[in-house]
Amino acid sequence: MGSRGLTLAPPAKNVVVYCNGDPFFPGRKVVVNQRRFLTFEAFLNEVTKSICAPLAVRNLYTPRHGHRVAELGDLQDGCQYVAAGFEKFKRLDYLSHGRKELCGTRNSDDLQVCPGAEQGQAGAQNELGVFRNGDLLSPPFPLPLSKSTPLQWDALLATLTEKANLRTGAVNKLCRLDGTQVSGGEELVSGDYYVAVGNEEYKKLPYLELLVPQDSACRMLWYVD
Q: I need a surface site. Which of 94, 124, 219, 222 has the fewest CB within 10 A?
């Protein structure tokens, strides 16, 4: 066969994918091989499995500006992207929330070192993850805690009300995943997950299991010092 009859496949690309709206997800390396994935949809199906997404991934966005990626050829080797379903892109500082497993100790896997990794790890130790009561479609949102400023409980509830945007109205209480109510800021544990609740009763649902990737490493990385 003549050389003009040969078609070289595009080289494989390595990308890192984050979960839309999840500030605790450390990112997953995914190989973009166009010999394996004939369509962009096939690649999105692979991303769904790779990041253990609770719902099928149907869109990819750039992490800083939320620009939508339309096809395989638009993906750039060594870059990061945010995976989403049909929901809108949720603007977070994904790149600054890299964990040690991604940003420091796994360079041998050719994972790209995240910009501001040390800053992200320091900030992570002063945040909570908060679910919305009864909502199994929205991932947890981050709630920063300040070590230098005394925590005012009313101010915290007001911040939760603004961030959670519950359909039932204002956030009146914060509960642990087992349903017990938190009565003061001194009871909060950095890195733990909580549920924002309005006037209604706490709804005991598998928030962690359905809304946070099931890979145990994803969850435990949040607790690494």
A: 219
Contact by Cβ (8 Å): 111, 16: yes
Q: What whole-number distance in Å separates Cα of residue 130 and Cα of residue 79?
A: 28
Q: What single-letter amino acid sits at 111?
A: L
Domains in the chain: boundaries: 13-84, 127-211
Are 13-84 and 127-211 in the same CATH fold? yes
Reported pTM? 0.46
Q: Does residue 173 surpass a pLDDT of 60?
A: yes
Q: By three-state DSSP, how is residue 97 classified?
A: helix
- Could you read off the pLDDT of 58-90 as tens digits, one per residue? 999 998 888 999 888 888 888 899 999 988 898
**Residue that has been written with the tokens 């949102």 in this structure:** 141
* Percent of the chain that is helix, strand, coil (3-state, to 5): 30, 20, 50
Give the separation between CA 56 and CA 45, rounded to whole angstroms: 7
Per the CB < 8 A criterion, the answer to whether 197 and 172 are in contact is: yes
Contact 142, 127 (CB under 8 A): yes
- Topology of 13-84 in CATH? Ubiquitin-like (UB roll) (3.10.20)
